[in-house]
Amino acid sequence: MSTETEDQKGHPRGLDRSWHLAQTPLQVDLTELEFALMRAFEAFGRWQTECLASVIGLAASGPENAMLHIIRMHDRPKSIKDLARLSNREDIPNMQYSLRKLVGAGLVERKGSGRSGVTYSVTEKGRDVTDEYAAVRSALLVKAVQGVPNMGRRLEEASSTLDLMTGIYEHVARSAATHRRFTDD
Q1: Residue 108 reports pLDDT greater than 70
Q2: Do the Cβ atoms of 121 and 109 come closer than 8 Å?
Q3: How far is CA 166 from CA 7, 10, 97, in A?
Q4: Is the distance from CB of 157 to CB of 139 less than 8 angstroms?
Q5: pLDDT for 7
Q6: For residues 137 and 17, what is the distance between their CA atoms, to the nearest angstrom?
Q7: This prediction's pTM
Q8: Dist. CA 182–CA 67, nearest whole Å
Q9: How far apart are the first and last CA of the chain?
Q10: How far is CA 34 from CA 21, 115, 175, in A?
Q11: Residue 24 Cα to chain centre, angstroms
């Protein structure tokens, strides 16, 4: 239902939506998805930080909070390799720093050694904190999305799209790394 003031996709006429990353309509849509993804990532990180801060006085980043919940997932110990795979991360030194922070806060415990394999699991304090986090999450986030029409379907479609884009980004990142030009600088 376009009006005289909108283009075929319902965007206001007169707006220049193209730029150096986006010349065609598909490129514009892709770029807008990328910017929405960046904004969502930052908002999600702030949400995780604030939700955890409402439960415990710990200055933890969004990724540290996510790591805590991944460790708690299925109540099974996780190795750093498991954590990297489940979170699609490669920055092991940063992950180790975050793990030390969570261990220091008494939320996570480290078991094992280098030879037998180190695993991480939540402590009783970590279990209590993640349970309280889940309660705050339900009271705020779940309540906020319940009233959005067709939210279940929208979330399912968004998850599928993000999974698809993750695979595409992984593929093109490997291609870019394979064909990277090196300079003598």
Answers
A1: yes
A2: yes
A3: 30, 28, 25
A4: no
A5: 67
A6: 36
A7: 0.81
A8: 35
A9: 55
A10: 11, 42, 19
A11: 28
Residue 43's pLDDT is 95
Long-range contacts, stretch 138-144, CB < 8 angstroms, 24+ apart: 140/51, 141/47, 141/51
For residue 102, give both structure tokens: 């969570």
DSSP 8-state class, residue 19: B
Is-contact 101 64, C-beta < 8 A?
yes
| DSSP secondary structure code for residue 122 in this structure | E
Residues forming a β-bridge with 138: none
CA 87, 93, 97, 100 dihedral sign is: positive
83 CB-contact burial (10 Å; exposed 0-12 / middle 13-18 / buried 19+): buried
| Separation in Å, CA 134 to CA 20, 73, 88, 103, 174 | 42, 12, 23, 20, 36
| Helix (H) or strand (E) segment spanning residue 100 | helix 92-104
3-state DSSP helix/strand/coil % of the chain, to nearest 5: 65, 5, 30
Residue that has been written with the tokens 């030390």 in this structure: 100
pLDDT in tens, 91-102: 999 999 999 999
CA–CA separation, 62 vs 48, rounded Å? 5
